């Protein structure tokens, strides 16, 4: 099994963190992992994306042109990455700020109201964990116990008190994801 994922959005949405947690989760279950971030000099507010590869075999290159899954969190990323999803692949998006939703008919499309649900939880910082939960509902490429280990590994110890809130956010994503087509 090899899963090639692109996660893309604005800096500050937790794009790189979500990728890092997926990567650590893969390591926790003895998978080969690649985590390759890309972001502009603007950081917060600029565009950011991360490529994550999880595999049972050696990974030959972290550089990809097409993906099994695209997780898209803003319109510029939708414009750039919708066409890079392999036929039969998955596109997961948050409709907040998406003016032109995906139109492809040869991929599976899902949406998660991550921004809305984070607002309901009164914690904007849970946004990325809600989206991660939605992805894991669609495609459980890593086990939940490994996601929690990955979360603990990627968060600085001073923020470990937030792990239960993040776990709750993942559960919200698991419950609220919707199939579009």
In CATH, the topology is named: Pyruvate-ferredoxin Oxidoreductase, domain 3
Main sheet summary: 7 strands, mixed
What is the averaged pLDDT score?
93
Could you give the order of the helices and strands?
Answer: EHEEEHEEHHHHE
Distance between the termini: 24 Å
What are the segments in which pLDDT stays under 50 over at least 5 consecutive residues? none
The helix content is 25-40%
Give the helix/strand class: alpha/beta
The CATH H-level superfamily is Pyruvate-ferredoxin oxidoreductase, PFOR, domain III
Q: How many DSSP-defined strands?
A: 7
How much beta, percentage-wise?
Answer: 25-35%
Written overview of the protein:
By secondary structure, this protein is of the alpha/beta class. The protein has six helices and seven strands. It has a single domain, classed as Pyruvate-ferredoxin Oxidoreductase, domain 3, CATH 3.40.920.10. The chain has helices at residues 15-28, 75-81, 114-120, 127-138, 144-154, 163-176, and strands at 2-10, 32-39, 47-55, 67-72, 85-93, 108-111, 178-179. It has a seven-stranded mixed β-sheet, sandwiched between helices. The two termini are 24 Å apart.
């Amino acid at each position: 099994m090899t899963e090639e994922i692109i996660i893309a959005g604005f800096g500050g949405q937790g794009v790189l963190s979500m990728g890092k947690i997926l990567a650590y989760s893969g390591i926790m279950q003895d998978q080969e992992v690649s985590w390759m971030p890309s972001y502009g000099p603007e950081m917060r507010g600029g565009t950011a994306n991360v490529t994550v590869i999880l595999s049972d075999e050696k990974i030959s290159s972290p550089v990809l042109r097409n993906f099994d899954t695209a997780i898209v969190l803003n319109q510029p990323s939708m414009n750039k990455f919708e066409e890079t999803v392999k036929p039969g692949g998955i596109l997961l998006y948050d409709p907040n700020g998406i003016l032109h939703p995906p139109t492809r008919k040869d991929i599976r499309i899902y949406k998660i109201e991550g921004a809305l649900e984070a607002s309901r939880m009164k914690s904007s910082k849970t946004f990325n964990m809600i989206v991660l939960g939605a992805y894991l509902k669609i495609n459980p490429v890593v086990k939940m116990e490994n996601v929690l280990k990955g979360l603990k590994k990627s968060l600085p110890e001073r923020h470990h008190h937030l792990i239960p809130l993040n776990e709750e956010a993942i559960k919200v994503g698991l419950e609220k994801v919707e199939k579009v087509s």
